[in-house]
Structure formats: structure tokens, C-alpha cells
Amino acid sequence: MITQEPRRIGVLTSGGDAPGMNAAIRAVVRSALAHRWEVLGIRQGYTGLIDANFQRLDARSVGGIIDRGGTVLGTSRCERLKSDEGCSAAIRQIETLRLDTLIVIGGNGTHEGARKLARHGAHIIAIASTIDNDLPSSDVAIGATTALDTALDAIDRLRVTASAHRRVFLVEVMGRDSGHLALAAGIAGGAEAIVLPEIEQEAEAIAAQIVAAYDRGKSHAIVVVAEGARYNADALANHFHTHRERLGFELRVTKLGHIQRGGAPRIQDRIIASQLGAAAAEHAVAGEFGLTLGIVNGKVTSTPLAALNGALRPLDRRLFELAQTLAQ
Ligand code: F6P
Q: What is the pLDDT of residues 53-90, one digit of tens each?
């Protein structure tokens, strides 16, 4: 009697960790198991794929992780995948491990890697997960909501002390290439100014916004700065320092940094991670791959990986203009 080998999914998390990745892993595993497919968890992202660093995942091994930030599989930014040798090694491992489909959870770098592997014939499904929230295939990526809440909580606290001392705070939030997190945190935090990589802004014009806030009698000013903006917090602080007599407020700088990546995933991240992880497993079982999954207009939506060209999700400029109007 010929017994058929069980079909197999591999799952990995890659790039910057994002709260909700564990909920997505859990959903992939349990949905695949429901179809009697096996799941291998690849440790440390694409690095673990190349090095065949993996573990079998069963229903119990993903128990008690839905509320945990980070990723139980570990992650990495894998330089080796960028080389032809690294890519060939990854393709070889996908064959050796008998993965029918590999599900990768991450942001732009992860999607770049997924496209490369797909071009070399691998069956790949990607899931949008990045606190930068800049993948064009998803209105909201796993982790973005929790990171935003964390940034907002910090801004709310900073406003209290800023008011007490009549200070301007430069609050730097993450966003190497894009300002989605800064824009959302800025508008929700009632910032006096928001500084973003996507919008050309001169330090002098930002200083003028602060002076105007002071002249209007404000007790504080909050400037939310994306780390990737031409004038990041340090550059702006330098500029402001040389004009400090004019500024009115005393100046302080707070960089939120990796704090934004930690913490338990909030409800929305757990829900979309569960939906996207389950949908990825369903697509794999249906023999559909070469896709990336995200949330568009509130619904799980698939986009061909080949349709991505490395472009980032465009910023909502109306939101930026609204923030400026409301910062009076
Ligand atoms: O995950 C995206 C991100 O958080 C960016 O906003 C930030 O610039 C980068 O990761 C930091 O990367 P690392 O953790 O490798 O220093």
C-alpha cells in the first residue's frame, strides 16, 4: 500500500518583529492542522531557512502565545538572501524540507525576499506585518496598531510634563522610510507639528510653527518626528538650539525607539493576525501561492507578489493637512 507523505507548510517571521506575529503563527499552524497539513516553524527568519534551523509545530506548541509580543520563532534581517548563493541555498532547503508552501510574515524586506524566492520557483505566501505600516498591499499591517498605541501613550505622557514646564518636546518615532506611524501618532496626539520623510519640510518652517504655538499662548508643543525624516530629532534639535531665544519654549528630545516594537498585541492586531494567518494556510491548502495577504477596506485581500515593485504605501496627505489645521 502506498502511503502519501503529508503536505507541509513552512512558516517564518522576518525583519523587525511586530506585535501580533505570534497570533499569525498560531493561526497558520492551527488552520493548516485542521486540513491535516504539517507545519514546520523556521527559526530566525530567512537565516534559519538557509541554515535549516526549524522545529515541527503542533497545536499545543502555539498555545499561550496569542497575547505575546515579539515572535516565538525569532527573526532576523538576512543579508545572505540578497546574494545569488544565499537565494539558491534557501531554494534548496525549501526542497529538502519538502515544503509545499512557505508562509513568510513581515514587512518590506521580507516581501522583497519573498518576491525573489517566488521568482526562483518557490511557492510563497507573504503576510503584511510591520509597525511602519508601509506595505502597499495592506491598509493596516499586523503590529501597526499596537505600535501606534504605544507611541500615543508616550506622547500623552510627554504632553503632561511639557505643559508643566512650558517645553517643546521633539518625539522621534520609528519609520525608517515612511511616516505612517508618525502621522497617525501626531494627529491622534494633537501634535503642534509632524515631520515626515514623505513631505519636504525645512527646519526653519518647523521652528516657525513652534514659535507661533508659543505666541498663541500654548503651554507646550509636541513635534512628532519620523526617524527617517530629512530633519530627524537630532537634526531638528541642533537647528532649534541655535535659535533657542526665539523659540519661546525650552527644548527636550525623546526617542521612543524599540519600545514601540515591544508589548502585548492589542485586540485589532490579534484579530487581523488571526485572519491573515488562517487565510494564508487556506490559500496554501488550495494550491494558491505567489501572493501577499493584507487588509484592504476592512477585508482580507490577496495581491500577487509580482505586482509589488518595492514602492511604499503612499501617505494620506489630507491627514497631514488636517493635522496642521487642527494644531492651532
Ligand atoms: O521594523 C521596522 C523598523 O522598526 C523601522 O521603523 C526601524 O527603522 C527599524 O525597524 C529598526 O530596525 P532594527 O531593529 O534592525 O534596528
A: 999 999 999 999 999 999 999 999 999 999 999 999 99
pLDDT at 6: 87
pTM to 2 decimals? 0.97
Q: Which residues of 215-227 are buried (b: 16+ CB within 10 A; e: fewer)?
A: eeebebbbbbbbb
Ligand 1 in reach of 176 Cβ (< 6 A): yes
Helices 267-285 + 144-165 axis angle, to 10: 160
Say which of 51, 67, 100, 132 is annotated catalytic.
Answer: 132
pLDDT in tens, 169-227: 999 999 999 999 999 999 999 999 999 999 999 999 999 999 999 999 999 999 999 99
If residue 31 lies in a helix (H) or strand (E), which one and from where to where? helix 21-34
Q: Which numbered atom of ligand 1 lies nearest the CA of 130?
A: 1
What are the structural domains of the chain? 8-143+265-307 (3.40.50.450), 145-261 (3.40.50.460)
Can you list the positions of beta strands (E) in 14-93? 38-42, 54-57
The pLDDT of residue 96 is above 90:
yes
Q: Are 142 and 121 in contact (CB under 8 A)?
A: no
Task: Tell which atom from ligand 1 comes closest to the C-alpha of 181.
Answer: 6
The question of whether 149 is a catalytic residue gets the answer no
Ligand 1 site-directed mutation target among 13, 21, 131, 225, most atoms within 8 Å of CB = 131
Which ligand 1 atom sits nearest the alpha carbon of residue 227?
8
Cα angle, residue 138 at apex, residues 79 and 140 outer, rounded to 5° = 100
**Gyration radius of the chain's alpha carbons:** 22
